[in-house]
Design goal:
Length: 420
């Protein structure tokens, strides 16, 4: 993967460059699961595109929060929603949800009028397919963003049979999307071999990782008040994110039963939340607090009560190869040391940076034992050392994954694809 650099200025020559002359450039952003900062969840695109200097944008999203599945609306002309139906499981209802968004996104794109680039984010793969159609209609470049390697991740997590008819159809669609894009944005470093297997040249792929901005995570309430509102004292571990099958949250409940002196705060919603709440009640796991999803601009007031940020995922080889989780960067930006159970290169880099403790299992070690050991180690380090780890985490995000730095990289890419 490469970091794009702006090309030397020159008189516009291509038809696209000629259309750009004398007017602000516009980018249409398609992401079904995008959310405004008033919602809890994926605000990546609001935070990135809102920092562009020379471009105006419009984000088209589904009108249901990906994790809570509740409807929401937006009054901003830069963020519009299209209606999508609810679904309760990974079945036909979810496919209908994807189809409804793709159709609505095409209609919204046609209504917006003239724009210079279509930027379509996957999953699901129907979103870049809708982006391809709009790019063809408007005769503009298509940039495809890949946030998850569908359908490979579905196979590794057991949701889809490898080589099945559905799998083969999705792979064919994936190949079409990659080859149709003028550029591909990847959120994680380490997917080069996957793209190469589809014949994608490395210069076509640009890394614009997930991240966070430390300035967005300044609490407005004191720590003691935040802890009192949670009913938590002592050592507090927080998880903030989706409560779905891929998130491995049963592991946190396993660990909570072993560490009664630690309070675990689980913030968010998802397909597995009701089952997790029921399990905690049936097993009398009293040191777990379940909170609803919190808008991104209020997360700092939850994090200030915690001593560590937890990141868990179901075990899959794909996650070890490449990972760029927003929630992990949110913790670091808020000054929390972190623990993740995934392992791989990202965990190694964070441990080496002095802002994380290894939470992944060594060969022959259970996942719960590894996570228990990591939390005990952080507890023994004391508040002063955890604060130093938190400061190193903020510095790591500033240098490697700030929204400002990633927005500059994104803007350079948009400039480049419209100058061809």
């Amino acid at each position: 993967m490469r970091s794009p650099s702006p090309r030397p200025s020159r008189p516009p020559q291509s038809p696209q460059a000629a259309r750009n002359a004398g007017r602000p450039r516009r980018v249409l952003v398609l992401n079904q699961s995008a959310l405004p900062r008033s919602q809890g969840g994926g605000t990546r695109h609001v935070e990135l595109f809102g920092r562009l200097r020379r471009w105006t944008h419009r984000i088209v999203a589904g009108n249901r929060n990906y994790t809570t599945r509740e409807r929401f609306s937006s009054r901003s002309p830069a963020f519009v929603t299209v209606p999508v139906p609810n679904y309760e499981s990974n079945g036909s209802g979810r496919v209908l949800n994807w189809l409804a968004y793709a159709v609505g996104a095409v209609a919204a794109g046609v209504r917006w009028g003239r724009y210079d680039v279509v930027y379509a984010s996957s999953p699901p793969l129907l979103t870049p397919l809708a982006g391809w159609l709009l790019a063809r209609l408007r005769r503009v470049p298509l940039v495809v963003e890949i946030r998850d390697l569908w359908p490979r991740s579905m196979v590794e997590l057991g949701y889809l049979a490898d080589g099945s008819r559905t799998h083969r159809a999705l792979v064919a669609l994936e190949r079409f999307v990659y080859r149709s894009a003028d550029a591909i944005v990847a959120v994680a470093d380490g997917w080069q071999d996957h793209f190469a297997a589809f014949g994608v040249p490395p210069e076509k792929v640009v890394l614009v990782s997930n991240g966070a901005e430390p300035a967005d995570f300044v609490p407005t309430v004191p720590r003691d008040k935040a802890r009192a509102e949670l009913g938590a004292d002592g050592f507090v571990a927080v998880y903030a994110g989706a409560h779905g099958p891929a998130n491995g949250l049963d592991l946190i409940l396993d660990v909570a039963g072993v560490l009664p002196g630690c309070t675990f705060v689980l913030v968010g919603d998802g397909l597995n939340k009701a089952r997790l709440v029921t399990r905690a009640a049936e097993e009398a796991i009293a040191n777990v607090r379940f909170l609803p999803a919190v808008p991104k601009d209020q997360l700092a007031n939850v994090f200030v009560a915690a001593d560590v940020g937890l990141h868990t995922l179901a075990q899959a080889e794909l996650f070890k190869e490449a990972l760029s989780p927003n929630k992990l960067y949110d913790y670091l930006a808020a000054g929390l040391p972190v623990v993740t159970n995934v392992g791989g290169d990202l965990e190694r880099r964070l441990v080496e940076a002095g802002c994380a403790v290894r939470g992944s299992a060594a060969p022959g070690e259970s996942s719960s034992a590894a996570l228990v050991a990591a939390l005990r180690e952080l507890g023994e380090r004391g508040a002063a050392e955890r604060a130093r780890m938190g400061a190193r985490g903020r510095d790591y995000v500033e240098r490697n994954a700030s929204r400002t730095a990633m927005a500059a990289r994104l803007e350079a890419l948009l400039d480049e694809v419209t100058s061809r």
